[in-house]
Specification:
By secondary structure, the chain is mainly alpha-helical. Helix content is 67%, strand content 0%. The chain is built from 17 helices and no strands. Helix 3 crosses helix 6 and helix 9 crosses helix 11.
Length: 304
Amino acid sequence: MSQARDTYERYLEDIASHPRITPEREAELSAIIMAAADPQAVEAATDELIHANLRLVVHCLKDFDKFLSSPAVRITRMDLIAEGNIGLMKAAQRFNATFSKDDEKASRGSGIRFSTYACKCIKSRMRRALKLARFIHIPEHHFGYWSEMEALRHEHGETVSDKVLRNELDVSDEVLGLLKQSSQSGICMLEDLAAQETDGGGWHDFIPNEAVPCPADETGRNDLRAFLVDEMKTLPPRTRNMLSLMYFNEHAPTLRELSHKYGISSERCRQVCAQGLQRLRRQMSSRRERIEPDLLAGLEAFAA
């Protein structure tokens, strides 16, 4: 038995220890969560609702087993269960047992079962995870059509005609062709390409991370900051402190907050800052020829 199978079996054993709850208990827990009066009670009610329905995630997983075996998908069974559990947690936090589209039913307290609501949240999260796990984007609604196509093949056999598929799915010939193409895609993943062309490592070793600051930009910002700090030494202390708070503080204060700090009006604070910036502009203009072009552009953007 593989390690992945061992992990899955152990997980099933772990969640089996959590007892199921009745619809009446679901309604009680929902009322506590919706009331949000006591944070500890809300947390306890949410945890109970989640743990009692962990088996529901495994049940929903069965609809995606055939996709997990596709070479185009790089995600494991336990990864998909983890995504489904996130959907379950969100469902538990938002579930309202008394909700009904029929106002008359709602007034009688006749609502929906948690499993009905949670299944949609769980499957939606799983479909999203599968979609993101593919190198080539597959429209999310294709996954629903794939399930229907699989059911029709079980019912009519593997040789089910396009006419039957088209009529049962209520789609055009063009859409049916796209659905068949996407369901049979055996897409080579970027990670596989990297493994073939490099010794060790993967695609993340040579594709830039857009979330990481560019070293050149970071250096430019540091140079600009150091230059401005040095230039601001010529300003009056109060002006220098105000500009430092406004432009070099992570949480810049408002003019009203500055007015409370310095005991002057908001308009006076604005004037002091404006005069300080104007003085910096004059200093920059007088030194224009001695300032590097990139730094000058940053200074002008700051003082604008």
